[in-house]
## 1
Amino acid sequence: MSTNKYKTNSLILMMKAPLTKETVAMRALLPHILQNGTSNSPSRKQLRERLDDMYGAMLATDVQKKGEEHVISIRLDVANERYLSDTTPLFDNAISLLAEVIFQPQLEDGKFVSSVVESEKRSLKQRIQSVYDDKMRYANVRVTEEMCKGEPFALTAFGTEDEVDAITADSIYKYYQEVLLNNQFDLYMVGAIDEEQAMSSVTEKFSALVERDKSTFETIASPEVKEINVVNEEQDVKQGKLHMGFRTYTTYADDDYVAMQVCNGLYGAFSHSKLFINVREKESLAYYAASRFESHKGIMMVMSGIEFAKYERAVEIIKEQFEAMKQGEFTEAEVEQTKAMLKNQLLETADVARGLVELSYHQVVSGKKRSIDEWMQQIDEVTKEDIIRIAQKVKLDTIYFLKGKEENQ
């Protein structure tokens, strides 16, 4: 992606494979091990020093769920050479370093270094624990588990503490070799770069990744909702977490996707949305209330924090507000405001290299092409009728309520 918009040039490598219980913890751990050192810079400190020498380049990793795909991303940001006085081929060096991180990790006795693996396992377990401590995130994990039982989407992006415990330097090294063979790799180069030179450099340095067919992986279609699943859980919490999961039967790959985005925007994604105004402000039922739409699984989550005693009324009004969407009880002005917010969000996301890649990567995951310009245009074209029609498909699936233990109430 050739652009002069950014001060830095970025390499963003996406590694995609199906989300499975057997591999989820290993995938969450792997990128952290890789950024601990390479065969040429066999410690985290030496690797950091090399990045510092490249005018403070930055290496970062992430792992996330996109529908039922599990995506590892490794990002390397370097200064744009045009702004430097010397003639270091900085971008080319960055390509070499990224290839080294991927293909030449630091090893001992033909496997990853045990002390590194153990230390990263501890950090990963702390991250898993921190979700449990953050009750809003915890409720989100729980409602997803309950709603998608038996579907890969029920898994978190990090795995469980037990799964992390079971990993050894040997097992993760074997898995790493499988990743190189079987994952789909997409490398994005963003910035003011000499395209031809960059392409030839990547072709040479990433030649270990054999040409492979684009993996066609289908996220499992959402099953029909037979009855609403209600789950209550008690913990020592001061504020109730009421999370409700809806199946929208619409994903990024569908033509109706953008209309669903507008529908979710009107319902709960912004401060002028129905949930915010009615649940939070008019009825003072919730400390917060919002909805989020997952693009590749097609699930809409309503998240709210409420007093324990207000559970019944909160559930009722959250349902009522979606019923109002189905009846078309919203104004053209609200639709226009939502569209403006969505377009603004898109432009803001595209304003940083990472966001631009995220937007483009939707197309890889879904197999559906939709450029940012087309997306903006499709937002403009959504009509009130489209929103009502798309709302009809949406079904409430699961109500999850995390409340305090009896003595607190």
Note: The mean pLDDT is 95.
## 2
Amino acid sequence: MTVELTRLDNGMIVATDRLEHVQSVALGAWVDVGARNETPDINGISHMLEHMAFKGTRRRSALQISEEIENVGGQMNAYTSRENTAYYCKVLHEDQELAIDVIADILQNSTLDAKELERERQVILQEIGQANDTPDDIVFDYFQETALPDQALGRSILGSPENVSSLTRDDLFDFMSRRYSPKRMVFSASGKVDHQQIVDLVSEKFDNLPAHEDHEMEALRYEGGSRIEQRDLEQVHVIFGLPTVSYTDDSFYDLQVFNTLLGGGMSSRLFQEIREKRGLVYSVYSFSSHYVDGGLFSIYAGTGPNDIGELMPVMCDELVRATVDLTEEEVNRARAQLKASVVMGMESNSGRCETLARQIQIFGGPQTMEEIIAKVEAVDLERVRAAGKSLLGGTPTVTALGPVKGMPGYDDLAARLRA
């Protein structure tokens, strides 16, 4: 096993995954803080902070941050999710010290310059506007808000225009000082690395993180319901979903197999019945979103206004039918797809780096590819059927955006799940 872990004196975990056949290193800091840790008045602050981290430190200007990495041919980026924020680089192995130094610098020494903040505020407002103008993006935010109303998990990662317009430099400093403690961080590296060398560099560079730890988090509260919005569009964009299990639930992989055979590819039931046989959509697929204490199972489709009335009942019926007449062939095919996805994902050191960090944050330690594949292979027909049935009978969430005049009623759709 190539993975090694060390917990530093400050509480940060350093994890490395050595690959002998590459010359590059993917590395970064995964912070166990995201939109879920925000109160309503500062919703959007995690995402804004991610943007501002690249806008200058006490040692580097914004231009120098990007130039120093790109001068050695490296790549640097970041993202914000509902449960974590990541800052990461990919460089040649001889430039790993520079990359660690830059990441440590932006996480400890960002100036959050007032002029830069005003400029970046406008960029984020443009990002929100772009999302609002993209119906197959914004319908996902509507779904999240309807399924999980009046809680942090249900709010947009980008935040509202009102919040983004009012968040101050002091708000950002305060959030970072209370949330970005070393105990909430995993520094992960994969590629041509020496574990002790990475540990020494991270220990040296990350010497000014806040000691205070504040990690309040609302428990997930699923409610469900309906949000249907008329818009003058060519298509209706619709998501239909139900509550499901967390990452750590024993039935997690059972659900992944069910998801794959229901709507995970061109051979899936939804694709074959709804697109290939009936021609009702261009795009249809199922997906699941998981958190530390729950999750959402969903189906997305985009269809014309004349087809929405047929589409939605068929979508519900296919979900129910998949719990009744599954075949061994379908389960075997879905297992093969999942196993291939795991193996292919492990062929990239960037993918391995992120996977390692997230496994430590979710499970408290790494899981080998062999362990994951064994869990997938252990899933059988009865377990998949049970995972599918566990979705039925609850309160669904339905969101639709577009020419929705022919949309079936919510109660009619919910009743089909009890058939």
Note: The longest strand covers residues 281-291.
